[in-house]
Amino acid sequence: MPLLITDYSWTQTTSTVYISVPLKGAKASQVDIVATDQYIKVHFPPYLFEAFLAQPVDEDRSIAKVGNGAALITLLKKTEQLWDQLTLPTTHKETKKELRAKALVKHQEKLCAASKAKSEKQQTEKKYALKTMMKLEEEEREHIQKIKDDERKKTNAELEAWQQKQHEPLHYEKSTRQTLKDISEKSPQREMSVEKCGSKSRTQPVELPAPRSSGSIQVTFTPRVFPTALRESRVAEEEEWLRKQAEARRTCNAALEDLKDLKEEERNPDWLKDKGNKCFATGDYHGAVNAYSLAIKLNRKVPSLYSNRAACHLKLKNLHKAIEDSSQALELLTPAVPANAAARVRAHVRRGTAFCQLQLYTEGLQEYLAALKIDPENADLQKDTQRIRDVIQDSTFKD
């Protein structure tokens, strides 16, 4: 049985009625408001406010707002006059029952109409977007076709010019041969040419160019080597890693009971990770641990969250927790592919550091060697690995 609200307040002018309903600490998302021309309902369990209006109002222009701990309803009167009372007398039980039933039916029809209008609007927007995309694609195809036609015309013109140029030497050679033939026929001597200079003239023999000498050019080529890339043998592992990364991005346990009071951004693991990184950068390691822990509650498949929290635990000297988080990160960083190599190096180093601080130098050395195997050119790793070897060797000598 709902608890009826009686401590509401209302005021009016000749054209407007203002109703204020206290929300008793309820959130805005929990408040359900139904408003028609003669019926008002504000429901937030277990409380209920009902008003059967004494005069009809214009429901299309009326407004309901929720804020500052109250529901504020502004009703526009259909006739400008002052009301003697807000609601119908309690004696009109049958009238109230009928008004309630009509109001609920009308509200349901209004919701259905709004849903249908929204669906139609979405369909219209989708059709418009589809037409726009088709138009853009058609314009793109026409543009590409125009470029092809222009290139074809240009190529044909160049080809025709080249062919015409190829015929010109042949025509010149034929005309030269004909001229020499005519000269030789007119003169019994060997081929001569006549050169006039002023009033004098003399004959000169025509010397044809000697045939071109043949020869060979030595050409050497760089040998082409096609080594099989390492990645070609790791395609399956890389595809598995990409699949796991995509699955991790889709995973989010935002519906957990203890997370319902969080803000919208606090339900985003990426936002929490950035917050943890900022806290770590400023030295707030406890705040960083809290941020990473909440992000892990939301998504337990992101290895960087565990690895970053392990770094915080190292700063706070929570060495066993650092080992646990580093191990969890390495479990998620499988299969081992180049894309996650840097992350695996960090996880091994953090777990090795925790082992060394617990004076388990042999275990720590194994972790550093595993990191060095992934990144053998890392000078810092080489130096740290050698230091751990020296510590182990010194302790052996002392024993």
Automatic annotation (TrEMBL):
It comes from the Eukaryota. Residues 3-87 form the CS domain. SMART domains: TPR. GO terms for cellular component: dynein axonemal particle; extracellular region; neuron projection; nucleus. Residues 165-198 have a biased composition (Basic and acidic residues). The keyword Ribonucleoprotein does not apply. Residues 162-214 are annotated as: Disordered. TPR repeats lie at residues 345-378. Transmembrane segments: none annotated. It is found in: Cell projection, Neuron projection; Dynein axonemal particle; Nucleus. The keyword Nucleus applies. One of its GO terms (molecular function) is nuclear estrogen receptor binding. This is Dynein axonemal assembly factor 4.
